[in-house]
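Write out the bound-state structure for zinc ion.
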Amino acid sequence: MSCLECFESSIMDIDECQPIYRDIQKFYKGLNMEIDQKIPLHLVESGVIHSKLCNYEIYIIFFLPCRITAGSLLAHEMMHAWLRLNGYKMLDPHVEEGICCVMSYIWLELEMKSDSGSNVASSSSSSSSIPYRKNQRSMFERKLAEYCKYSLKNGKLPIYGDGFREGYAAVLKYGLKNVLNHIKLKRRFPC
Ligand SMILES: [Zn+2]
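---
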């Protein structure tokens, strides 16, 4: 069961993920981290959300995610794919998960800064076919985004929580590009 707000914004069809997927692709492109490879998306009934890194397949739990949770999840999972596609190998789990959580956080921040409900330039398309509510940012979504950011910042699991905190501090200090370069060379976050 779900409350009305959750129900209204929940994703119940894989096609509903496609606009979000394209937004996340544009998010990475905007950071000069283009992910060209088409990554298959699957909705699953329940269980563990994870990416099948060997096939670059991404699983999203059916019904639960709304645009905010699905977007933050996709930003995270697509960073795993980006790391693989760009030759980042044998990273310590807290470094890999940490930087993926950082990308999720950055997406949430950008998303909330945009008025339209989409952090990509919407002027390029006059199409009204995009199924999610584009021109309104509901209070529900804002609260949810704040909660997602809070969860990332206060994660208790060492790999995710500590990884995020270390990674985000490094990104604030050195910038994302420098941190990524450092990880590639040293396989750890800069101090
Ligand atoms: Zn991950």
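---
Residues 93-113 form the longest helix (21 residues).
Residues 4-121+129-186 form one domain.
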